[in-house]
Design a protein that fits this description.
Helix content: 25-40%
Strand content: 5-15%
Radius of gyration: 21 Å
Largest sheet: 7 strands, mixed
Oligomer: single chain
Strand order of the largest sheet: 1-7-6-5-4-2-3
Shape: globular
Distance between the termini: 18 Å
Structural class: alpha/beta
Number of strands: 12
C-alpha cells in the first residue's frame, strides 16, 4: 500500500478539525464501558462461565449468565443470546413468527423494512412468509425523515394491530436513521392509544452509539446481530432478542420448541467469545464512529454529499457517501477492500445476492464472514449510487483505509 504524503497531510488536517467530535465519542465510550463492567460484576462473571456444552445444552450456566448480562446492559427483563441465531435478519424472522398469529396485522411505521425481510413478511412472494400463514402487513412511510404522527394516530385509533415494527437504521434507503428521541415520542403516542400493541425495534447497527437502548424509552422488544456492534468483532456469529420476559420466552420457543425454550441450546464453546466481544464492544463502536466521522469529513471536503455530516447526531455506525455515479461507487468499495486485512487482493464486483432485488457491490475483508462491525462498505447498484460504510475494529486501521480510498480513487486533494 502506497499512500502519498499529499493524501496523508490532507487526511491529517481533516482529523485535526475533529477534536471536539472525538471527545464526545470518548465520553460516550466511557459511560458504555462502565455499564458493561457493572453488568459483569453484578452477574459475578467467572471463568466457569466460559465452559462449553454440547447436545441439548442442558444446565449451561455460561449461557444463562450471558443472557443476564445482555439483559442488564440493554435494559431488558430478559434476553435470548444465541449462536443458533445466525444473523440479525434471522432473529427478526424468529421474533415476528413468535409474536404474530394468523389474522394478526403487523404495521411498519418506518417505511419499507430492510431488503432481507421482504420475503419474510411476504412483500415479495414466498411460500414460507408471514403472509402465507395469514398474517397481514401494513406500512406507513416516514415524512421528512420523521414518523408520520398524524397517520399513525389515525391508523391505530381505528384498527387493532398486534405488532408495530420500527427499523432504526436506514438500511439501503436514502432516509436518515431514527434517533431515540423520535422513538420515545412515537412510542408514547402509540401506548396512549393502545397499551397492548407490541412495539418491536430492529436495533441493528445502533447499540452503544448512544448510552440508552430503545427499551429505555418504551419499546417492548428489540433485536440485533452479534457480528455487528455488540459482538465487538470477536463474536464469530449470533444475534440477540431482548425485552419483556413473556415476549422473549415466546421467541425462545420459536427458536427451539414449545415447552423447552431457553432451557436448551448448546453453546459449543462460544461463551468466552460472546462475553469478551461484549466487553470490547463500547471501544470498538467508538472506533467505528470515529472512522465514520473522519470519512464524512474527508469525503465532504472532496466535494461529495455525505449523510450524516461529520458533526451531526449519529444514531448508528453507518456512513453514507452519495456518489451519483456507479463507477465511483464500485471504485470506492474496491478501495476499502484493498485496505482490508483479509482478501485484500480480491476485487469486489456488483453481483446478485440472496434476499436482494438489485445487484450489490460489497467490500468486506473481515475476520468473520459478513461482519459489519469490521470495516466494510457496500451498496445496491441503483440510483443515487450510495456507498454504505460501517465498522472499524480500531480507528487507526479505519484511518488508513480512508487515506487509501483517497489514493485509490486518484482524487486530487
Amino acid at each position: 500500500m502506497i499512500i502519498s504524503e499529499e493524501v496523508r497531510n490532507f487526511v491529517n488536517s481533516c482529523e485535526n478539525e475533529l477534536t471536539e467530535e472525538f471527545k464526545k465519542i470518548d465520553a460516550l465510550c466511557d459511560k458504555n464501558s462502565m455499564n458493561v463492567l457493572n453488568a459483569f460484576h453484578n452477574n459475578k462473571i467467572s471463568e466457569a462461565h466460559f465452559n462449553s456444552t454440547t447436545g441439548y445444552g442442558y444446565g449451561d450456566i455460561g449461557r444463562e449468565a450471558i443472557e443476564n448480562v445482555f439483559a442488564e446492559v440493554l435494559g431488558a427483563e430478559d434476553s435470548l443470546v444465541r449462536n443458533q441465531l445466525i444473523s440479525g435478519s434471522h432473529a427478526l424472522n424468529v421474533c415476528l413468527f413468535a409474536l404474530l398469529r394468523p389474522n394478526d396485522t403487523m404495521l411498519s411505521i418506518s417505511g419499507l423494512p430492510y431488503d432481507t425481510l421482504h420475503e419474510v413478511i411476504g412483500i415479495k412472494e414466498n411460500n414460507s412468509s408471514l403472509k402465507s400463514f395469514g398474517i397481514n402487513y401494513e406500512q406507513i412511510d416516514l415524512v421528512n425523515d420523521d414518523f408520520d404522527y398524524k397517520t399513525i394516530k389515525e391508523k391505530i385509533s381505528n384498527k387493532k394491530y398486534k405488532l408495530i415494527e420500527i427499523q432504526r437504521s436506514k438500511g439501503y434507503s436514502t432516509r436518515k436513521s431514527l434517533s431515540l428521541e423520535k422513538l420515545e415520542k412515537v412510542i408514547k403516542i402509540i401506548k396512549e392509544i393502545d397499551k397492548d400493541v407490541i412495539v418491536m425495534v430492529d436495533n441493528c447497527y445502533c447499540e452503544f452509539v448512544t448510552e440508552k437502548s430503545p427499551l429505555h424509552v418504551g419499546a417492548d422488544i428489540i433485536v440485533g446481530s452479534l457480528i455487528k456492534n455488540l459482538g465487538g468483532g470477536i463474536a464469530p456469529n449470533g444475534a440477540y432478542i431482548a425485552g419483556r420476559k413473556d415476549l422473549v420466552e415466546l421467541a425462545s420457543e420459536r427458536l427451539t420448541l414449545p415447552g423447552e425454550g431457553k432451557e436448551v441450546g448448546p453453546t459449543l464453546g462460544i461463551n468466552r467469545s460472546l462475553l469478551q466481544g461484549l466487553f470490547f464492544a463500547p471501544s470498538v463502536v467508538a472506533s467505528s464512529l470515529k472512522t465514520a466521522v473522519l470519512t464524512s469529513k474527508v469525503l465532504e471536503k472532496l466535494g461529495y454529499d455525505v449523510e450524516p455530516r461529520y458533526n451531526e447526531e449519529r444514531v448508528d455506525i453507518v456512513q453514507n457517501i452519495i456518489f451519483k455515479d456507479p463507477k465511483l461507487l464500485v471504485k470506492y468499495c474496491q478501495a476499502i477492500q484493498a485496505a482490508a486485512p483479509i482478501d485484500a487482493f480480491a476485487l469486489p464486483l456488483p453481483s446478485d445476492m440472496p434476499g436482494y432485488d438489485d445487484q450489490i457491490i460489497m467490500a468486506s475483508g473481515s475476520f468473520t464472514q459478513g461482519s459489519s462491525i469490521e470495516l466494510s462498505c457496500d451498496g445496491p447498484m441503483r440510483e443515487p449510487f450510495i456507498a454504505y460504510q460501517q465498522g472499524g475494529l480500531t480507528y487507526n486501521y479505519g484511518k488508513i483505509a480512508v487515506m487509501y480510498a483517497c489514493e485509490y480513487l486518484k482524487i486530487k486533494v
